[in-house]
Amino acid sequence: MSDQVNWTQVAQHLDDLYTASAGLEQMFPGRKFTLDGHLVGSIGEVVAAYIFDLDLNPASTLGHDATSADGKNVEIKLTQGRSVAIRHEPEHLIVLHRPKGGPVRVVYNGPGARVWTAAGAMQKNGQRPISLSRLDRLAAEIPDHDRLKPVRPAPV
Predict the structure, then answer these.
(1) Digits of tens for pLDDT over the chain (156 positions)?
(2) Is 100 within 8 Å of 88 (Cβ atoms)?
(3) The whole model's pTM is what?
(4) In this structure, how many other beta carbons lie within 10 angstroms of the beta carbon of residue 107?
């Protein structure tokens, strides 16, 4: 991931998105204008690639989002909420959380099998949910050698 990205500007754009979302929710009471889908997924991917020096796969690649320097296939999830959902058992999983106003924190960085086993039942949309609190507990059990080493701090 390029060191030439202006992460201060990225943070400002993210804050602008949150402001727009909140403004729309005020204008239309009872409607949610959440930042999700491709937008949040892409943000998570570029931030994780920066932190862990990952090589991103082309957008919408099935299976995994990136490859680590040591060749691991990495699935990346970002949420502003309290849970994430996974569709398959990833080789390695990174889960990031960014509340409104930031900053990003790494919730989980480790083998995907642990999370797949602990995740909830398959939903109608083909995804298995897991809470960030459960991920925090799982993360506490991961030995350092099973984590990807961060190269840089979270930029936003």
Answers:
(1) 556 899 999 989 988 998 999 999 999 999 988 887 788 889 999 999 999 999 999 987 888 999 999 999 999 999 989 999 999 999 999 999 998 777 999 999 999 999 999 999 999 999 999 999 999 999 999 999 999 999 999 999
(2) no
(3) 0.90
(4) 22
Number of domains in the chain: 1
Residue 19 lies in a domain: no
Query: Is residue 130 one of the residues assigned to a domain?
Result: yes
DSSP bridge pairs for 93: 75, 110
DSSP string computed for 10-56: HHHHHHHHHHHHHHHHHHSTT------THHHHHHHHHHHHHHHT-EE
CATH number, position 73: 3.40.1350
Count of CB atoms situated within 10 Å of the CB of 128: 18
Give the range of the structural domain holding residue 63, as residue numbers without chain letter.
35-146
CA distances from 155 to 34, 44, 79, 81, 125 (A): 22, 11, 16, 19, 32
